[in-house]
Amino acid sequence: MKGNIVSEERIPMYGGQAVIEGVMMRGTSVCAIAVRGPEGDISVETQPLSGIYRSGLAKIPFLRGLIILWDALVLGTHALTYSANMQATEEDEKIEGGSMVLTLLVSLTLAIGLFFLLPAGVAYLAEEYLGVSPVWSNVLEGVIRLVLLIGYMWAIGKMEDIERVFGYHGAEHKTINAFEAGADLEPEAVMKYSREHPRCGTAFLLTLIVFSILLFSFLGPMPPLQRLLSRLLLIPVLASLAYEYIRLTTRFLDSAWAQPLIRPNLWLQRLTTREPDESMIEVALASFKAILEHEMSETAG
Questions:
Q1: Using an 8 Å Cβ cutoff, are 31 and 47 in contact?
Q2: Domain assignment of residue 124, given as a range
């Protein structure tokens, strides 16, 4: 199957996520989850995307980032749950309904606490008891946040199961890179492409942290409770800024000014991707071809 080079407007709509023994791909109107089961067969589930992707809200700068990111988070949680259930050998091992919602809420709470509130608290203590200036306190907060993020990615990447997920992450990127280059969507051809991609969620996280240093530096000194609340309330602002930044830089990939801005994002992805084997590429292709076939049938209809 031969890929076509997508237009600038459609490129941001093609993305995905690695899941347990599989890949979720998101198109312009549907998403598909392909998972290799315990017996070695590949199962594919296709479902329509929320109409929000085609609504006017998805075209409003800054607002669109929040809406799409939240929907992607919910979609990603569903994909992870589906893949986990595909690996379950007993019925009582499956995650359903309330368990999925609880998992999402707990994950969000832990992430916000670890990567936002903890660095803010440590930086405040440094400001209060070590005499660190407010400006350098905010820089320290950002550095702590970045170290925690890199350390977390490095640590979980050492786990055998997560290392396989990172392999599927690499397969997802290779597939999208091959498609955008107009290559044959076959394992041998796809394997040659890079396992990094500028629109990756890892790039989004790094960008968000850099923006947090800049934004929080303008706030100046604050009492501890006010400081923590400001970090919580400004997460949507940071997410919107990071989304628009990634969208802008990926539109100008070949521009000289964009290259040094994109390079750190690609470097960080070496922590969250691994070189996939051919079987992982096959799963990523099954997912990607499912969304392409659905969208071609829509166009033909």
A1: yes
A2: 12-300
